[in-house]
């Protein structure tokens, strides 16, 4: 596990809380959206390689497959996908 997770164990905690497809079994909740937002920020750190924690993206993809899959499931929800496409583009 990368040193980042020893300092910020929240990702490991969220991974341990996964139950089936979402945090609360088969229905998406605000908890899933909140964690999706965190993960989406992590997954889009390509432009920020020099800041602490930027190596976290690959670690999440390799080590935390349940969270990676959650990210993909939430992003595939039509309403979420539409918002991502239409939202204002920012560097963060």
Tell me what the structure shows.
This protein has a domain at about 55-85. It contains six helices and no strands. The chain has helices at about 5, 10-15, 30-45, 55-65, 65-75, 80-85. α3 packs across α5. It is flat. The two termini are about 25 Å apart. The model is unreliable at about 1-5 (pLDDT under 50).
Question: In short, what is this structure?
Answer:
With 92 residues, the protein is mostly helical.
Topology:
Blueprint: H1 3-7, H2 10-17, H3 30-43, H4 56-63, H5 65-76, H6 78-86
Protein structure class: mainly alpha
Mean pLDDT equals 77
Binned strand content: under 5%
Shape: flat
Secondary structure: helix percent: 55-70%
Distance between the termini: 25 Å
Strand segment count: 0
Count of helix runs:
6
Q: Would you list the SSEs in sequence order as H and E?
A: HHHHHH
The assembly state of the depicted protein chains is: single chain
Rounded Rg: 13 Å
Largest sheet: none
User: Unreliable runs, pLDDT <50, ≥5 residues?
Assistant: 1-7
Provide keyphrases for this structure.
flat, 92 residues, 0% strand, mainly alpha
């Amino acid at each position: 596990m990368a040193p980042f997770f020893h300092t910020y164990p929240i990702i490991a905690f969220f991974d341990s809380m996964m139950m089936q497809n979402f945090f609360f079994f088969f229905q998406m909740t605000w908890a899933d959206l909140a964690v999706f937002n965190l993960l989406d920020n992590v997954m889009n750190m390509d432009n920020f390689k020099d800041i602490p924690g930027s190596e976290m993206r690959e670690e999440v993809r390799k080590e935390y497959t349940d969270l990676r899959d959650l990210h993909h499931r939430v992003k595939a929800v039509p309403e979420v996908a539409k918002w991502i496409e239409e939202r204002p583009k920012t560097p963060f």
